[in-house]
Model the fold of this input.
Amino acid sequence: MSAKILALDTATENCSVALLVNDLVYVRREVAPRDHTKKILPMVDEVLKEAGLSLNELDALAFGRGPGSFTGVRIGIGIAQGLAFGAELPMIGISTLQAMAQGSYRNMGATHVACAIDARMSEVYWGRFMRQEDGTWASVDDEAVIPPAVVADNSQTDDISWVTAGTGWDAYKESLDTVQFDIVTGNILYPDAEDIVVLAKFEFEKGNVETVEEASPVYLRDKVAWKKLPGRE
Done:
């Protein structure tokens, strides 16, 4: 199925837009931590103009649903909802952690990725992902916001080399370098719309879309579950 999907993400320092049209991807990105509201709509206009399309000609609008900066996530979903509402488009929310796994595959061919975004307050947004044969990703750990020392303390040795992704690995290097599994330093620091739009295509083909009213962010701050911790479910 050929799909025309616009994706945007402002959940971290990176501001990005991508438009998928017949397996071609038009991309704009810039690391601009305090200028997302100024940058994102011009980027949208640029990729649409480059592809010769209008919003009304698209099939869906995807967005980075989080986790990430509270303000950044809210900016992204708010703008995405406004665009989707005006063009009557279904929406697709994509995990920013999973997007970094896809970015690691795009850049390095990584199929096992350990993602950690600096969540401030001595915590990381954490998740590990394994690439499946169909190109989708399976979660190995539940996405969570968690102290990096807890990640290290509850890690287990396995026979897999995990490629790192995200700002958390540098921000909390002392703690995360003590994880029990083997790690390989990756080159992806931020989620990007180029990867979100690829993941959104899989969801669109499965019919996993939502209305503007149903679209919602994922902050993780209210989720403290870590399945491998004693006494937690």
User: Anything to note?
Assistant: The chain has seven helices and eleven strands.
